[in-house]
Design a protein that fits this description.
The protein is mainly β. It contains 1 helix and 16 strands. It has a 4-stranded antiparallel β-sheet with strand order 1-2-3-4. The protein has a 4-stranded antiparallel β-sheet with strand order 5-6-7-8, with no helix packed on it. A 4-stranded antiparallel β-sheet has the order 9-10-11-12, with no helix packed on it. The relative contact order is 0.12.
Length: 206
Amino acid sequence: SFPTRRSSDLTGTICSGYNDFYHGVVQGQGYTGFSRSTDGGASFTDGGALSANSYGDPSVVWRRSDGYFYFAALHTNGLGLWRSTNDCQSFSFVGMIHSGSGDDKELMAVDNNPSSPHYGRIYVAWTDFAAGARIRLTYSDNATSWSAPIYLSAAGVDVQGAWPTVAPNGDVYVGWVRWNPYYSGPIDIEIVRSTDGGNSASFITN
């Protein structure tokens, strides 16, 4: 998976998450690491392992409504969420985003527009292989309780790699790769939009 980086609008700190096999294989401290930069990315300080229960596929967001960094990663029991209240110097486990044996490639987005009707809402999209390898979406307003996940991709198709983003008006867009079929292709990009804060979504292109 790709490393993810987010910058705080308040301090300028860049918080980066990545797969970390040294901590996982050599030290047994989990497969996810993080680093912090306070000089615009010219240098980074290694923060060490995220958690012994983390298994990579990192996603980091900075949330304007509370000024905290949030870090999602694969967890022993599904998808876990960690939070930093000290500007990416350390992270503490918040709880499970979703529990399941087939969760993969989760990515987060956060609504950071104070004028949005869903300001502060955190969205997570991922591929759920235990549910027929479909793209799913859930959200939280407090980072501890999560909505019932909705299905975004159709059943019986080959998809992977969901990327969510939030528009200034609060609409949520999620795109992913679809093979027709896997792995020979051709390959398409499918995109859905939610206009009700992640409770439902519809295709805008196929």
